[in-house]
Each structure stands twice: as C-alpha cells, then as structure tokens.
Records
---
Amino acid sequence: MSRTLRLAVIPGDGIGQEVVAEGLKVLTAVLPADTKVETTEYDLGARRYHATGETLPDSVLEELKGADAILLGAVGDPSVPSGVLERGLLLKLRFAFDHHVNLRPGKLFPGVASPLAGSPDIDFVVVREGTEGPYVGNGGTLRTGTPQEVATEVSLNTAFGIERVVRDAFARAQARPRKKLTLVHKNNVLVHAGRLWTRIFEQVAAEYPEVSTDYLHVDAATIFFVTQPERFDVIVTDNLFGDILTDLAAAVTGGIGLAASGNINPSGEFPSMFEPVHGSAPDIAGQGKADPTATVLSVALMLQHLGLTAEAAKIESAVAADLAERVGNPARSTSEIGDALAARVAG
Amino acid sequence: MSRTLRLAVIPGDGIGQEVVAEGLKVLTAVLPADTKVETTEYDLGARRYHATGETLPDSVLEELKGADAILLGAVGDPSVPSGVLERGLLLKLRFAFDHHVNLRPGKLFPGVASPLAGSPDIDFVVVREGTEGPYVGNGGTLRTGTPQEVATEVSLNTAFGIERVVRDAFARAQARPRKKLTLVHKNNVLVHAGRLWTRIFEQVAAEYPEVSTDYLHVDAATIFFVTQPERFDVIVTDNLFGDILTDLAAAVTGGIGLAASGNINPSGEFPSMFEPVHGSAPDIAGQGKADPTATVLSVALMLQHLGLTAEAAKIESAVAADLAERVGNPARSTSEIGDALAARVAG
Ligand SMILES: CC(C)[C@H](C(=O)O)[C@@H](O)C(=O)O
Ligand SMILES: CC(C)[C@H](C(=O)O)[C@@H](O)C(=O)O
C-alpha cells in the first residue's frame, strides 16, 4: 500500500521561492518509500497581482481545498500597497480555511546564540487564535483623506471561536511534561473581549485539573519573554497579541530565520497551512542568503499534523544537529543548508 | 519672587504609596529655594473603591483640574475586578485630561544590567498616543455569559488625534542629536487605522526634512527591541502598541523598576500626570522592597515638562550615579534609595 500527500505549494514573494525549495527538498528526503508527495505550485503574490490584479482567485481557493496541506513561503512586496497581499492572500487563506489554531513553537536549540544574556532554557509553544480578534478586517473610515478622517478597527471575539482554541491549548498543555498554560490578554483595558477570554479560559480549566494555569497582560508577557522565558510552557492568546509575541519569541530563540508556524484547521475540513514566521525579506531575495530552517521546521509541523510523527521528529533532530554545528563555521547558502538537512534526514 | 508648584498626589495601590513618598522626597530636595511645592493627596484606588464604590468622583476630577501636575503611584489590586480601577481611575484621568502624549523614555544607564547580551547602547523615547485607539473603551457584548457570546472592542482613530501626537514626536526627534523617528503600527492588517497613521506621518514628515523616518510593523519592532535597540531614537505609535512596546523597553533597559512616564497634555489646558510604568506589585507592597527610581525619574519628566530643566537634569544625573554604584553592593530599601537620591540632588 502506498500513500500520496497532495501538497499545495505557494512560494509567494521575495525569499519565499528559495526557502520553499529547500523545505520540499527535505520533505522528499524524509518521507518513507511508501509515501509519495505530489506538489502543485500556485503562482500567487506580487507578480500575479501586478499581472492580473488578482490576489487569490476563487477558482484557486476552490482547488486548494483538495490539498492535504499547504506550504507557503512568504507574502508581501514593497511594490504592492501594504495590506493588499496580506489581507487578500495570506489572511484570506487563514480565514477561508478556518485556521483557528495558529501554532508557533518558541524553542532555543542548543548552540544557537540568543540575544538574551545567559542563553536561558526556552521551550514553549504559542497557540495563537487565527480567525478572530482585531484581524477580522472589520473596520472603515469616515471623511477619508480629510483632516476630519476617522478610522475604526473592530476586534470581534466569539465564545465559540475562543473556546475551540482554548480547548486546543489545554489539550496541548496536558500532553506536555510541564502541563502549564498561560493566558495572555489585556483584560484590564479591553474589558469586553478580555472578560470573555478569561471566562472561557477558566471554564475549560476546570476540565483540566492537571494543567496549571496563569494569566498575564500582554505588556507584562513581553517582559517575561526577555527576563524569564523559561517560565512559559504553552501560551494561548488572541490573534494580534499572538502575532506580536511570536515575533518576539522568534527574536529570543535565535531569530526569525528559525521560527516555524502552522495555521491549523484541527477538524480537517479544510487543509492546514504551514509557513515560516518570517516575511518575504525583499532586501535579500534571490541571493541565496535566506535561512531555510524556519521553512524546514514548518514542514516538520506539517508532518506532525498529518500524523507522520517519526518523520517530523527526524527533521527536528536534523535541524538541532545542524544548528549545533553552525557555531564558528562559515555561513552557508540557502541551498547548502537545505542540502545538509536533507542529507541528515535521509541518513 | 517665589513660585509654588501645586502638586496633586495619587499614591494609589500596592507599592504606590512607598514609591511616591520617595519621589516627593527627591522633589523637595531638588527644588530651588524660591520654589515651594504644595501637595494635596487624594485617596483613590482599591481602598476607596471598597469603602465607597467610587473610582474617581466628579468632585475630585474637578479639584484635580486646579493642580499644576499630578504624581501617580500605581493603580490596581487583586481584590478589585480587572479593569475597574484601570478604566475607572487611571484611564479616566488620561482621557479626561486629554493626555495625548504618553512619553516613555527607554534608556539603559551605564552599569545597569540588561537582559540583552552585550549591553547595547539604548537611548530612545516612545511617544505613545494616549487618548485614542483600542483604549477608547468602545466595545460591548451580546448574549453575555452564554455560549453564543460575542464581544467587540473598537479602536477609534482620528486624523486630529493622530496628527497632534505625530507632530509632538517630530518636534522631539528634531530636537535630538540623531533626529530619527520611527512609526510603529500594523498597517498591513489594521489597514484603516494603519493607512490613516501612515498618511499623517508622511504629511508631517514633509515639514521636517531634517528628521529621518522609517516604519516598522509592531511585531517586527519587538524583534529590533531585543536584537538592535540602538537603532531607535524616537518612536511614535498608537496607544496599545505603545503600551506593549514600553514594557518591553523597560525590560531591556534594566527593568520596570526604572521606567518612567509622563501623560502629557501639551496645551496645558489640563494638568499632566507623571507615573512609573510599573504596576502596584501587590506581592511586595508594604515591604520596603520596591525600587522608587522609576517614580523619581517620573518626577524628573514632570520638572522638565514644567520648565524646570536644570532640576530635571540634576535628578537624572543623581539616578545615573546611583545606578552606577549599585553593581556589587547590597540591595537597599525603598527609602534608602530615596534618601540616597535626595542627598545627591541636594548636594
Ligand atoms: C504578514 C502578516 C499579515 C502576518 C500576521 O500579522 O499574521 C505575519 O506577521 C505573521 O505573523 O504571520
Ligand atoms: C494599568 C494599565 C491600564 C496601563 C495601560 O495599559 O496603559 C499600564 O499598563 C501602563 O502602561 O500604564
């Protein structure tokens, strides 16, 4: 019996193309003989937008539904007005495919230099809500372009949407050795959304007596990210706070070149999407300078999600070994790093 | 001729009382002989709330209008539901007195240990908008307390409100040696508010050709706060992003015990308010363990605002000297630190 993984690939903009190529290289190398990968590449991003005005045509969205998973490189280019590709492509995918669990591990691998003194022991995971909050795109302007302009942004939060991501986070915390879950919000200022998050968090907590819980305001959480990151195990938070905290998490764990993410639809109704946390980095695009490690680790998250846990673990070990050997050695190109990782997982 | 500074003092909750006492000690010591300070203390915070149900009575608000400035310790106590004192007292003051410039320096003083490796050269100031954005309290709930609950939070942004704080930030940047101003927002997701901030920022920039400008998304800004904080000179940002970034700024510059802030009404129509960035820290309240330095530096910001720049500079030098001597010496109590600083500014 053989299996086929139908993978939709969206390289996107800037360094997206380069890092995705390495992600696929490692994926092919790690898969067992009985598992084939069938990739379909989608030309989406700045080029397509300039050529046709499209960000994500309905027909493509329809086709993507047939994929087992999506691998995305990066989205965004200075030639396109800010927000067009982010809202029209990346966020459209997250919302259309109901990616409510945005999973972002924060792990400092041995040997990796942290900007924090003393290289603390960092190993947590952020469960960021992915389909609500300030990201819903529910805003507008009045008297646009005049000195009397007013602009609004509405954060929408539902008990339904919060409960499902909070449940996911509790289940993840329960499955980890430390069994700790921290809710991050700003419930002393955003009292309506904050109370809803807090109420649901406490309700679900009652079903998980083994999981120890605490609460931090988002501002205080950033302090602990740099002064005491080892205190965190699992964090659950809203879409915007999760966006901010996971970039900070990337920074303290060796940089955005290593930070992986999964946009997960746990029900499987729609394909989940995996992407590095970093952006398209147009300044270094096409130069073979981008670190593909974040994409490779995102491939590991994808395999985990698809139930190929041994293969996911192989990739993580390969990355750990590779990172440990980087210290003191000359910098390698994007494809050299990809080759090295592919060789390790195949070996 | 003699001057009198009418100072309203709101010690508030937790360590507020202790740190404010030291702030006043240093203030009295630094003022020239011809300047008297006349303090009126207001009993506001958790105790008052439990006793009377009041957070900020109209009569007190009216009285406070007559002050030249307000010194606030800290607000918030676990015995009061989250948000009640924050919204009913602290934010009510900021909004009622139109404190649209929330000024928060981020400076790593020589000798102070930073959690960042290599102790980078950090000296920036965050100009946080203080009267708009997600802080307006414009939200609500539907089907409250049920599994169908929906909660909203509306971020309100006006051209008027943004322009005045952006102008303030440009003027500050222009007056500093590096003349650099960074706008921080999330204009690729919060496109309505983001475009308004960006448009006004660019308009005002045209009037300040000597100020070099750039833009960062808030998530990317947190990365630079830990990897390259020396890149920042002046930052202007919205209320919520400013809240988050200034706690992070405090963390990388030696901790929340040193972070000062001013809630400024530049027109002088209402009194400005000065407060440490830290909270009420109920866990260490009443033990003489709190560091009053943030409050003392907030007093310096107050003197600066009132035009007593020589005295403000004296306090900053005293703090710098005191901090440089802390390394390797035993920890001192709240009042010992206050005494030492008072002695330095008087000497
Ligand atoms: C590009 C942008 C829309 C996106 C986000 O804000 O979610 C990115 O910052 C991320 O974290 O994946
Ligand atoms: C206490 C809270 C309302 C306040 C804020 O969010 O502004 C605090 O965090 C601050 O930064 O001054």
Note: The domain at 114-253 of chain B is CATH 3.40.718.10 (Isopropylmalate Dehydrogenase).
---
Amino acid sequence: MFKFEILHRSQKSRARVGRIHTPHGMIDTPNFVAVGTNGTLKALDNHMVDSIGLQLMFCNTYHLLLQPGTDVVKRAGGLHRFIHRKMPIITDSGGFQVFSLAYGSVASELKSSGAKKHDGHVLKITEDGVLFRSYRDGKLILLTPESSIQAQKDLGADIIIPFDELPPYHISYDKLKASLERTHRWEKRSLDEHLKNPQNQAMYAVIHGGVDPEFRKQSCDFLSRLPFDGFAIGGSLGKTKPEMFEMLKTLLPRMPEEKPNHLLGIGDLESLDLCVPLGIDTFDSSYPTRAARHGLLLTSEGGLKVLKKEMANHFAPIEHDCTCWTCKHFTLAYLHHLFKANELTAYTLATVHNLHFMVELMRKIRESILSDQI
Amino acid sequence: MFKFEILHRSQKSRARVGRIHTPHGMIDTPNFVAVGTNGTLKALDNHMVDSIGLQLMFCNTYHLLLQPGTDVVKRAGGLHRFIHRKMPIITDSGGFQVFSLAYGSVASELKSSGAKKHDGHVLKITEDGVLFRSYRDGKLILLTPESSIQAQKDLGADIIIPFDELPPYHISYDKLKASLERTHRWEKRSLDEHLKNPQNQAMYAVIHGGVDPEFRKQSCDFLSRLPFDGFAIGGSLGKTKPEMFEMLKTLLPRMPEEKPNHLLGIGDLESLDLCVPLGIDTFDSSYPTRAARHGLLLTSEGGLKVLKKEMANHFAPIEHDCTCWTCKHFTLAYLHHLFKANELTAYTLATVHNLHFMVELMRKIRESILSDQI
C-alpha cells in the first residue's frame, strides 16, 4: 500500500515534488507534519484538522503508551478510529522521549555545558532497551525495539519509526560511536519485528551519528542497505542552522533517492526554506501550533504578535486573502481581545490560522518546485 | 422590532411557550441562555455556537467595559459584528459585578456569616453610581445608570438591563429598603437614558427586594408601571431552591403576563424543572459550560463524569442518539483520554455536547408545554 512517487525534480536544486501513498490516503510532498502528541493537535478537534487539509499528523508513542495506553487504542480499533482521523498518521518510537528523560531535551541540553544530570525516571539503559517509570502512575515500563514496535502496531499509524537512542549533544567520540552502533542494532531489531507482521504500515529508518559527518555517512550507508520504506533524520545536527544545513547538504546526496526523507522535529519557516532545496520531503514540528497559543500568527509578511497594542483596533482578518475559518469569520481585534481576556477560544482560532498557513505555504512551495523556482 | 408573543399557555401550570422577536432573530421560549462573558463561550468559537442553535447569548458589560472597552466594540460596529454572532445577545448592566466586588459574590456570601469584608476595588458607592478601579489597568471607572446604558448602547445587544444594586444576602431591613429604593431610582434613570435613543434595543427591568416577599411585590409593582419590555428577576431569592421556588411562586402571578420573564444567573437542571412551570421564559447560567470544562457531561440519564475509570474503554458516543458534533465524531473513551491528558480539545468537545444538550432539553420542554404535560 505504501508507495512514494516523485512527480518532478527541480532543475535548480535537489528539491522534488512527490506523493506518498498510504492506506489512509496521499501526502503531497514536500509537506509539513503537525504534531498531535496525545492524539489531538492542541486546541483543535481532529475533524477541524481534516478540514484544514493537514495530510500527515505526528503522534507520540511514548505519550500514548502512558495515556491512554496502546491497549486501549488497540481495542478502539487503532489510532485513526480512536481519534477520528481519516488521513495518514505517523508515530515515533518513544525513544526520543525516554532519552530526553535520561539526558534532557535537545534544546535544554544545547544550552547547557553538558554537565547537567537528568536522571528523570529512567532506571536502566541496557542492550535490551530502556527501563523507566511512568510519570503518570509510577508503573515500570521496559521500552525495547520489540515493545516499541508492538506499541506502534497497536496504534496502527501509516508510518512507524524504529526504536533508537537519542545521544546527548555533549558526548565523547567513543560514546557516540557506541551509541550509534547500538542504535543500528535496535533499528534492525525493530525492522525485523515490524516485518513479522507489516500490517500495511511503512517504516522509516532514523539516521543518527550526531554532529559527526563520518558517523552520519556510516549510519546512512548501514540503514540504506536494509529494506526500510523511507528515512528520517534524527538527533542533533548542530548548534546552529548553518551547521544543520552543512550536515544535511553532505548527507542527503548519499541517501537513496527514490525513498522519502523526513526531518524529525524541525519545521520552522527558516529551516523549511533551507532544507526543501536539499531534498527533505516532510518536516514535523510543533512550532506553528505552539506559536499560535503564544499569540504569534504566521503571515506571508512574517510573524504577527496578536497581543501588540495596535491590534486592538484592527477590524480586519489576520490576512485579507486568507481562506481559513478564523480569517473568514473573525478579526484581529477580536483575536487580540480573546488573548487579552485569556479565553481558550483564542488558542483554537489562532491555531486554525497557523495550521492553514502551513498547509498553504507547503502548497506554494510545491508549486515553486514544479516551476523550478526552488 | 422587539416583540413577545405567547403561542400556548399550559393547562397544567403557568408555563407558556412563546417567541421573543429581536433585530437579530427569534428566541423560542422557554429557553436557556448561555453565558459568554467576554464575547465568547469558553472554548467555543461563535460560529460553532450558532451551529448548535443557541438562540440567546449573555455577555457581561462589566468585563467588556474593562477589556476590550466598549469604545472598541462600538468602532467594530457593535458586539454582533465584533464577535461574529448573528443571533440575539443580551447584556447586563455591570451592576452585578461591581457589587460582587463590593460585597462578595452571591455564592460566597451565602456561605459566610456576612461578616466578611470585600472592599475589592470599589472606592465609593453614592446616589450617582459606583466608582471602582479596573483590575486590568488600575483606571478609575464611574459606573452610573447613564454610563452603564451608554456602554450597552455601544455594545448594541438586542436586550439590555438597567443599572441596579445587588444587595448582600446578609443585610438589615432598613438597608435592604434603602437599597431597593435606590435601585428603583437607578432603573428609572436607566430607562430614561435608554429611551432617549432606543436603537431597536429592548430593556428588561430587574426586580429586586432580596428575600423579603413584601419588597419583591413592591419592586414588581413599581417596575411594572414603567414601560420596560420585559422583566428579569435578580438578587438573592433565598438560601435554598425551595426558598427560591416559594418566592417565585408568589412573585410571578404579580408580573405582567404579556411580557417575557428572565431569571438571572440561574439555569441548572433542577431550577429549570422548578421554574418553567412558574412561567419563567428564559434562564441564563454558566453551569452547563463550566460543568463541561470540569468533565461533567449532561445526559438524559443525569450527569456523567468523563474522568471515571470505566470511561477509558467506552468506545461509544456520550449518548447514542445525540446529534451533536462531539457525539457524531468522537467516543467517550477519547474524551476521557483528552481530559486525562489535559488537552484543551477536551473542553471544546465537552462544551459542544453540553450546550447542544441544553438546546435540545429546552426544545423538549417546549414540546411538553405544548401538550400540557408541564
């Protein structure tokens, strides 16, 4: 059922326009993937998300494992039925979150000197997997390549991700090497587990290797030889966007051209501009929805802070030519007021607009690639 | 433009089925009026509220005066345009809130012995009006019968309310008498101010008199002689529902039969059952929307606590025959999960259901009156 077709390759860059076919429909690429950690985008119901036209939604296995439990989702008939989503879903392995518990999040760790300890609730990391304690009910959970894939089988997303280690940014050469080798073994075990019962799901490998270009190449070469359906790029790619750009520029030409590439956890506007020409096909990020809840509205002329004083009397939509639900019915002045009054409706309306903006932006990007302008 | 017609009087009680015609359409009575303090129901956008069929929405002048300011709403073209609501709106005078600042809220005051002081931000109460300090920006605001009506002219609701004093429950006979007399003078001043420029708005008098039946009668008689378009019953009606019931039972037969009656701030299910047979036409309350946010779902078989453990695996709608957006698309198990995960979407979906429930309940109540069962 899973198929990736490339419709056009830009003459100007490595950008391409394609289509990912899944059991729940098509994803036009390049595309933006919104994050609905717990099975909902924050402040939006999934029916509205559908109507905005978001083609791929990212849900987090770690969170769904702890609440409601993947057994509940399985009994509901899978994640699509449970959350009432008709279009494609991608889930991750839970590795990112358990290792964030152990080492701290990528963002906070980048800012630190690496000396900070983040014991969190992780009790043991072995070759088998990671033993941690649920922050919800204190239950011990062993996450292994096999149990992560089983959880993702219960969820039944269209695209799933092998269990991997998220190494800290501050790490020695030897430790990074050991981490990468173990990640490769874990990804292979994940793939084996998946292939026992593919269930019409596709699996993307996760390329690791931290900020070491040689390790990244090794990861790319090792994983390309295995029958994954696509590739995700994970872990730290550098401290700055130029560092990330340089890394991806050398990495992407090495990756199998006929398979889709996903950039994990990065989808801000600047990164989209930088990475689409390198050949990244999908980007997931909570940036546009989180920005919305903080009152930052995305427009073709840049971010607009809804709480600024002058918005109080702006009796026009966020963007006059925007066709989103919010712009069609409400003014900036009203949105400003709702934010000032701390009304939950503010988050919903701002999120609708930002998500619609991303969907439209990606459509325009695809058009630009088709006419070789990107 | 404003007109009240009675279509049917029950043979069993004083209940009646009617229609209030306003510049923004009709309100079938008896009906429930949802509270959208700041110009939005909490967690619902007004377009959704329309589609649920809520015919009358209550907005608070006090809150809108402080944020965004009634001048902003006026510049937007009035409250309907500002909040994008096509159906009727009722606003109050702000009196309830400023006197709650001064004396404490009705609820908290009922529980106390009356000894508590609530100076709040009220600086002075005189014959002219109430001087208070905005909790938002510290600005001094003088709310008088005239300024309250001017604010309500700026807002442009279909039904407006004269400025009144909310006397505390714990009050001496003499003080209650003085308060009532001043309220009557204030209501008369409000009406005079309103009639200078009716702007197609209707004004409901507010009957006061606290828990003293004689004062209530006096209030009813005094206000009935003035050309108000309808009547609201305000202030404390007693400590318990039976006390409220007794008071309303003696009061309502005294009120002009051909005008609509509104019960201020009371709209829980038990009170609806008690008061519809007495002839109350409209009820405003934040109960169903607040209950929703606390995970209490209204059903024909009583309140259902969504956070109860057994809901986790309930893969069916809240009510199988409910036609609301939430029940049509989502299961109780999913709602339970969203509440457990503290997702904002939970509040939206629960509010949609509870509001739809109230709209349907009132429709059924009207049907029962039409067939003389109530």
Note: The first strand of chain B starts at residue 3 and ends at 9.
